[in-house]
Amino acid sequence: MSRSLTDATPIEFADLLAGLPEGAAPPPVQRRWVSTPAGGHVSGVFWQTGLPQLVLLHEAGSSARSWDDVLPAVDRPAVAVDLPGHGRSNWRGRGDYRPRRLAGAVAEAAHSFAPAGVPVVGRGLGALVAIAAAAKAPTQFGRVVLVDTLPGALTAPDRPWPTPSPDFAGQDEAHDWLAARVGPDSAAPATARTARQETVEGDDGRWTWRHHLGSLPDDAPTDLDDDALWARLAAVPAPLLVRTEGGPLDDKAVARFTTEAATGEISTVEPGPAALAALLRGLLP
C-alpha cells in the first residue's frame, strides 16, 4: 500500500495553545511544502518569522513536530523538516529510508527552506541524514550538530518498526502500544506526543501511524543505521556532538568520534529540552 501524506488541517497546531497564559498570542508556526526531484513533496514546519537560522531533522518514526518542545525556547526562526516517509512528507514506494538515500531530498528541501550555511541539527535517523546531506551538499549547510547519535549507534526505537504495525481503536491504544515497545521509563512525555501527533484516523475509524515504517514493502531495507557514514563525518568541518547526561551513547562511540572527527567538538547537556535549546541558541549569531 502507498499513499501521499501531504495534507494539513487548519487545527494542526492547536495543541501549541495548550498551557499559554490567557490572552497570549499563539506561537508563529506554519507548515510549507516543496517538491524535490530526489524525493517528492517534503514538508517543513517553520517557527518564527524571517529566514530560518536552523534546520532540524527528527528521528525515525517521528516528524518535524518532535522539535515542538525545543524550538519555543530557542526563540529564533527555524525550520523542522519531515523526513521522506514521515509526517506530511511523501512516502517512497520502495520503502528505502536509509540515510544516504534521503540525503538528496533533504538537501534540496533545505535549499528551498533556508539560506545556505545555517546549522543542521539531527537526532536519531535525522542525525545520520544530516551527515549524509552535508557531505552531498557542503555549501548548503553550516555546522552539523548530532544529538545523542553517531553512525553505528542508533538506539533500538530508531530502527524500522514492526511490519505490519497494528492499527488501533484510538490514540490511547496507540500510546499504550508504543510505551510497551520503548519501555515505561523512556521519555513518557515524548511517547505521548508521538502517539498524538504521528497517528491518523482512516476512513474505517481505525488509527494508524503517519510514517511509512510500519507499512514497508517486504523487500524494503530493514536497517537504517550506516556505519559507513563515519568516513563522511570525518570530512565534515567542526561537527558538534551533543551528548545528554545519561543518554544512549556509550563511551566507546564517543571515543571513536574524538578519533575520527578530528575537528569535532563534544558538548554535554542536562536532560530535557531547555538545555538543548540553550545550546542551540548559543550557536546562532
TrEMBL record:
Gene3D superfamilies: alpha/beta hydrolase (3.40.50.1820). The keyword Hydrolase applies. SUPFAM superfamilies: alpha/beta-Hydrolases. It comes from the Bacteria. The keyword Ribonucleoprotein does not apply. Keywords: Hydrolase. One of its GO terms (molecular function) is hydrolase activity. PANTHER family: ALPHA_BETA-HYDROLASES SUPERFAMILY PROTEIN (PTHR43689:SF8), HYDROLASE (PTHR43689). This is Alpha/beta fold hydrolase. It comes from Streptomyces polygonati.
